[in-house]
UniProtKB/TrEMBL annotation:
Lineage of producing organism: Bacteria, Bacillati, Actinomycetota, Actinomycetes, Propionibacteriales
InterPro entries for this protein: Rossmann-like_a/b/a_fold (IPR014729), Universal_stress_UspA (IPR006015), UspA (IPR006016)
Domain UspA: 10-151, 162-298
Descriptive protein name: Nucleotide-binding universal stress UspA family protein
Similarity-based family: Belongs to the universal stress protein A family.
Transmembrane segments annotated in the record for this chain: none
């Protein structure tokens, strides 16, 4: 079974065909439909299936190869998913793909030419070990070559809320700005561009000294964010823009903003991230804790 899929120009969503994956599929279908792109629903079978012994014994007694049996079952579920999506979005082109391999690898490879890759995640409801070690969503966002949307169990869109984008001047945040404006335009909502600052561990002891320059610093940062968003704002004059410079840790500020947002867009790593860093601490935290869908941008 092949591990490559035809993902060019499509919104790609991964699924294990469980009910828990429905939220990601529904979000991906809505996004693809509103943007006019085909939707590709992908399920990946492991390279070495590990069935329960009873099921394996049953399959052997029936003379049926377990892998082929599994492919048939998953194929039927994918067809049902596609039919359900078409029912909600009659004009949407919906395709399915069933491949064998590593799910994170297949989806990360798809991100090279897909419009976007969408994955579900357990977020705050995951066991501590899963949240620490990461799962498919962590691996895909870490190794992707393009934007990845992560839809956690707690993702609830405020449909009238803004698209929130974290802006720190990094190359990744510049890509995130472009994505934020496109998504806001398709949703007919404003963009809220957020930059954060805080006292460092040593500066806190000299807070009184810094107090006199806080207003000036906030003005400089606001000017910087306005300069960074102005080109995209000119491309999308219909999108209102709100710039906020907020004191606080970026991960906490963005998660708080997610509670009243339709979407959060962050760079895969911020200005402080070193060249080999796959996924920064801010994006990791936002992916797990955000209360709305999150798109991770990559250069």
């Amino acid at each position: 079974m092949a591990t490559e899929i035809q993902s060019a120009g499509k919104v790609v969503v991964g699924t294990d065909c469980s009910n828990r994956a429905d939220k990601a599929i529904e979000w991906a279908a809505k996004t693809a439909s509103s943007r006019g792109y085909p939707l590709l629903v992908v399920s990946v079978l492991p390279e070495v299936p590990l069935p329960k012994r009873t099921r394996a014994a049953s399959a052997l007694r029936e003379g049926t190869d377990y892998v082929n049996q599994l492919r048939e079952q998953v194929g039927k579920k994918l067809a049902d998913i596609a039919d359900r999506v078409r029912g909600y979005h009659p004009t949407l082109v919906v395709e399915t793909a069933l491949v064998q391999g590593s799910a994170p690898l297949v989806l990360a490879q798809a991100s090279k030419d897909a419009v976007m890759v969408v994955v579900g995640a357990r977020g705050q409801t995951a066991p501590p070990a899963v949240r620490i070690l990461g799962g498919t969503a962590d691996q895909v966002t870490s190794h992707a070559h393009g934007p990845v949307a992560v839809i956690t169990d707690l993702s609830e869109e405020d449909h009238g809320g803004p698209v929130v984008v974290g802006v720190d001047g990094s190359d990744e945040s510049k890509v995130a700005i472009g994505i934020a404006f496109r998504e806001a335009a398709s949703r007919h909502v404003p963009v809220r561009a957020i930059n954060t600052w805080d006292f460092g561990p040593y500066d806190a002891f000299n807070a009184e000294i810094w107090a006199a320059s806080i207003d000036e610093m906030a003005e400089d940062l606001t000017s910087m964010v306005n300069d960074l968003v102005k080109d995209e704002a000119a491309k999308h004059p219909e999108v209102a823009v709100q710039v906020d410079v907020v004191r606080g840790r970026p991960e906490f500020v963005l998660v708080d903003a997610s509670k009243k947002a339709s979407l959060v867009v962050v760079g895969s790593r911020g200005r402080g991230g070193f060249a080999g860093l796959l996924l920064g601490s801010t994006s990791k935290h936002v992916l797990r804790e955000a209360r709305c869908p999150v798109i991770v941008a990559r250069t």
